[in-house]
Specification:
Elements: H1 3-14, E1 48-49, E2 52-56, E3 60-62, E4 67-71, E5 81-86, E6 95-101, E7 110-134, E8 140-144, E9 151-165, E10 172-179, E11 182-194, H2 204-211, E12 214-216, H3 232-237, E13 242-245, H4 253-270, E14 272-280, H5 281-285, H6 288-293, H7 298-303, H8 313-325, E15 333-338, H9 343-352, H10 357-371, H11 376-392, H12 397-414, H13 420-436, E16 441-445, H14 448-451, H15 458-466, E17 470-486, E18 489-494, H16 503-508, E19 514-517, H17 519-525, H18 531-534, E20 537-540, E21 553-556, H19 558-561, E22 564-571
Parallel strand pairs: 13-16, 13-17, 14-15, 14-16, 17-22
Antiparallel strand pairs: 1-2, 3-6, 4-5, 5-11, 6-10, 7-8, 7-9, 7-10, 7-11, 12-19, 17-18, 19-22, 20-21
């Protein structure tokens, strides 16, 4: 297999990888060292291919059913852009353009690859840049395809970017643009720049100023003890209606515990009466049978949520607390917002129509088609039939609303709902919960990448709709271990060391084992001694892949992602009973 074909296949195979090695849609850092001359790469698509004038010179394209061509009508600048168009994409193929970057000038350096993209009517996929680094034996050692933050829907010319440190073991680098949906996309004015190195040490003055934005916490344990340290949340949260609590690992005991502690405090003191988690929406709602009425086995109910990461002692402890908190009067509900399964929604529909044999058969037919991965064209008529039946049957109004929401969840599932569409749908589902409970206050539990306010994340969509009524807390840790699904299976993995220059390395120098960092005020004050925090810094994103990621650290401007960051010095593995 030739090299070009290998690269294209690698892009296709990695297109749905959840590993993120990037920054979001932001301009380059303020200072950049000079970069090699890349004028021969035709990064602005102004030079036509002499063998095929409809395509750009020095670029390889793979259409997979897409119409790919140079466009002299729509462009960001110059005379031409590269256009990809697909009227329908039932097989979820991808259009790709790619070229090769000389390796030597970039080894060991932080590289930013940026370009301009315009989209029109993008559905069932997204448009993005991608950047791929090979090591020895064609091993992928660096990859980013803007998985969660690609462009969807309609966008005027938008500059997007990828930032990555190229490994010293890099042998080859390829990059380009991709589109895996239906609609029309234009690419223009690509750039590759070498970025300035971040700071590796802080002065005593900088540390002293940073400490002014730190609120130490007594413990991460939800021990029912003194909560005076949490009273700072009264001001930080204020009147916000929705609070997002993140995590940079789906397997850290300390992060789960401090989130539980915070939830207990804001529920008891600020009326947060709805909890919502990154999990199957209808399955999670069943946990209310236990926390409100004491019905069922809480451990088994957690298992049914179809998310192994939540099947741990820490979440079980939180559910047990919710049961106590609801006795004798209901004070909190357990909900969820994720879209990655249809099973719970099928159960809800089956239960609603269990007395109607014909409808039971229709739902069984729907489940079989979903199980068999049938096409949307086969499934949509059944969904429409169910929608009409829900309206026709004499269900109470609240039950109709819930049944129709489960139809919507199935529709969301049928969209390629990973990547940016998943985050949009999760935000839509949170807003649905809020609309059904307009006087409630919600606390969200999800990964950092979902609750953050950066573009195309769930948190971005919520911030756009809620404004100051949405507040976010990111989480990170300096050292330790966590449960992940790595190369040795689902076990505890040792976290990558926080090296000089990483955010965690700096925060550890404050000698506080656990604290809240006020990123919102740091950004607002914009002081000279905190300017380093305004730049892109390597920051831990442990994810759930364990040792399968090239690095746990990605470059982000964290003051844009979260309002506040909770730092814990040491993480230990969660008590995952799904491994027992």
């Amino acid at each position: 297999m030739n090299r070009t074909r290998k690269v294209i296949l690698a892009v296709f195979s990695l297109l749905f990888c959840s590993c993120i090695t990037e920054l979001f849609r932001e301009p380059v850092s303020k200072t950049e060292p000079s970069s090699p001359d890349l004028s021969g790469l035709n990064l602005d698509f102004e030079v036509r291919n002499p063998q095929n004038s409809t395509l750009p010179a020095n670029w390889y394209t793979r259409s997979a059913g897409f119409v790919i061509s140079l466009d002299n009508n729509e462009k960001h600048s110059g005379q031409l852009s590269l256009k990809m168009e697909m009227q329908n994409n039932p097989n979820r193929t991808s259009g790709v353009c790619e070229t090769r970057l000389p390796v030597q000038p970039y080894i060991g350096k932080i590289v930013e690859y940026r370009g301009w993209i315009k989209t029109k009517g993008v559905q069932n996929g997204y448009a993005a840049l991608w950047f791929l680094v090979y090591g020895e034996n064609n091993t992928v050692i660096g990859y980013d395809n803007m998985f969660y933050r690609g462009l969807i829907g309609d966008n005027e010319w938008t500059q997007v970017s990828i930032r990555m440190r190229v490994s010293k073991d890099a042998k080859e680098i390829y990059f380009g643009g991709s589109f895996n949906g239906a609609g029309t996309v234009w690419f223009d004015n690509f750039e590759i720049v070498v970025c300035a190195e971040p700071k590796t040490s802080l002065s005593q003055e900088e540390l002293a100023v940073l400490k002014q934005y730190v609120y130490p916490l007594r413990t991460y344990e939800p021990d029912g003890g003194d909560t005076k340290d949490l009273m700072i949340l009264d001001n930080l949260i204020g009147s916000s209606k929705v609070v997002g609590l993140g995590e940079n690992s789906h397997g850290s005991s300390e992060i789960f515990k401090i989130k539980n502690r915070i939830i207990q405090y804001i529920a008891a003191n600020h009326g947060f009466d709805i909890f919502s988690i990154e999990s199957n929406m209808p399955r999670a709602y069943k946990i209310n049978d236990y926390i409100v009425r004491g019905e069922g086995d809480p451990k088994n109910l957690i298992r049914t949520m179809l998310m192994g990461a939540w099947q741990n002692d820490e979440v079980l402890d939180m559910v047990e607390w919710m049961r106590r908190f609801n006795d004798p009067v209901q004070r909190i509900l357990f909900t969820a917002f994720d879209v990655r399964s249809y099973q719970g929604s099928i159960d809800v529909l089956s239960d609603a129509f269990k007395e109607d044999a014909e409808m039971e058969n229709n739902i069984a037919d729907l489940k079989k088609k979903l199980d068999d991965n049938a096409g949307v064209s086969e499934i949509n008529p059944l969904l429409l039939l169910l929608e009409n039946s829900i309206e026709a049957f004499s269900f109470p109004s609240f039950q109709k609303v819930w049944l129709l929401q489960n139809i919507l969840i199935i529709r969301q599932y049928l969209t390629p709902s990973r990547g940016p569409w998943r985050d949009k749908f999760m935000a839509d589902n949170v807003m649905w919960i809020k609309e059904q409970n307009p006087d409630s206050r919600l606390v969200l539990w999800a990964h950092n990448i979902h609750i953050m306010k950066t573009e195309n994340m769930q948190g971005y969509h919520l911030a756009q709709k809620l404004g100051n009524d949405y507040t976010t807390f990111g989480f990170t840790f300096f050292e330790g271990s966590y449960i992940a699904d790595g190369s040795k299976g689902s076990i505890a993995y040792v976290a990558e060391a926080a090296y000089p220059g990483t955010l965690e390395y700096f925060l550890n120098q404050l000698n506080e084992p656990i604290f809240i960092l006020d990123l919102k005020k740091i950004k607002s004050d914009n002081r000279k001694d905190t300017q380093w925090l305004m730049e892109y810094l390597p920051y831990r994103e442990a994810d759930e892949m364990g040792d399968q990621k090239p690095t746990e650290f990605i470059y982000r401007r964290i003051v844009d992602d979260f309002d506040y960051l909770i730092f814990i010095k040491r993480s230990s593995p969660s008590g995952a009973f799904w491994l027992q």
